[in-house]
Amino acid sequence: MSNLQQQRNDVTHIDGNLHENTDVRIGIVVGRFNGFVVESLVDGAIDALLRHGVSGSNISVIRVPGAFELPLVAQRAAESDRFDAIVALGAIIRGSTPHFDIVASESAKGLSAVAMDYNLPVTNGIITTDSIEQAIERSGTKAGNKGAEAAMVALEMIAVLSQLDSDDDIVSA
Ligand code: INI
């Protein structure tokens, strides 16, 4: 084996899988604005979590008026120590708001700040689109379901952080 090949074999890979750690508590924070789209994201997120082995009793859904309110409630949820990850769901549709950019950027910035401040996975399942059609496409039709994606990212992040915290190196090909 060449030295380069040997070095390659020595590389440590830390990956989170989606099924190892199912005993996890997930807080789903939801902005009710554009509810016809948002409720499909909530259904998608819950469905994805249940299908990956998370029990219903470990899932909480917390609703607030709109996406702008999500960072504060995510912060309280993180502070409560009741969750291993928080999934934020909402729909910001440009057509319907002149302050689209403010709501979109403040909610995203606020959620990342919570993740960093509380050292907790906070996933962003807020769809930001130019039109209602695009929002529908991302909430369970042509372009998948962003709520389900954000839920699965939360599970992967919990797993990868727990691998990082553990003493064992997970070596995967
Ligand atoms: N909130 C959303 O979640 N999506 C939107 O598209 C939206 N629009 O269109 O304005 C929206 N606005 C409400 C905002 O989130 C706050 O609830 C409101 O500004 C009060 O703080």
UniProtKB/TrEMBL annotation:
Binding residues for (2S)-2-hydroxy-3-oxobutyl phosphate: 96-97, 138
Task: Quote the EC number.
Answer: 2.5.1.78
Reaction equation(s) it catalyzes: (2S)-2-hydroxy-3-oxobutyl phosphate + 5-amino-6-(D-ribitylamino)uracil = 6,7-dimethyl-8-(1-D-ribityl)lumazine + phosphate + 2 H2O + H(+)
Keywords noted in UniProt: Riboflavin biosynthesis, Transferase
Quote the Pfam families the UniProt record gives: DMRL_synthase
Q: Where, if anywhere, are coiled coils annotated?
A: none
Q: Looking at its record, which EC class is this enzyme? A: transferase
The residues responsible for catalysis, as annotated, are 99 (proton donor)
The pathway entry for this protein reads as: Cofactor biosynthesis; riboflavin biosynthesis; riboflavin from 2-hydroxy-3-oxobutyl phosphate and 5-amino-6-(D-ribitylamino)uracil: step 1/2
**Record InterPro entries:** LS, LS/RS, LS/RS_sf
Q: Which SUPFAM superfamilies match?
A: Lumazine synthase
What Gene3D superfamilies does the record tag this protein with? Lumazine/riboflavin synthase
Record bears the keyword Transferase: yes
Positions binding 5-amino-6-(D-ribitylamino)uracil in this chain are 33, 67-69, 91-93, 124
The organism's superkingdom is given as Bacteria
Q: Which NCBIfam families match?
A: lumazine-synth, PRK00061.1-4
Assembly and partners are described as: Forms an icosahedral capsid composed of 60 subunits, arranged as a dodecamer of pentamers.
| Annotated family | Belongs to the DMRL synthase family.
Role: Catalyzes the formation of 6,7-dimethyl-8-ribityllumazine by condensation of 5-amino-6-(D-ribitylamino)uracil with 3,4-dihydroxy-2-butanone 4-phosphate. This is the penultimate step in the biosynthesis of riboflavin.
Q: What is this protein called?
A: 6,7-dimethyl-8-ribityllumazine synthase
Source organism (scientific name): Psychrobacter aestuarii
Q: Which gene encodes it?
A: ribE
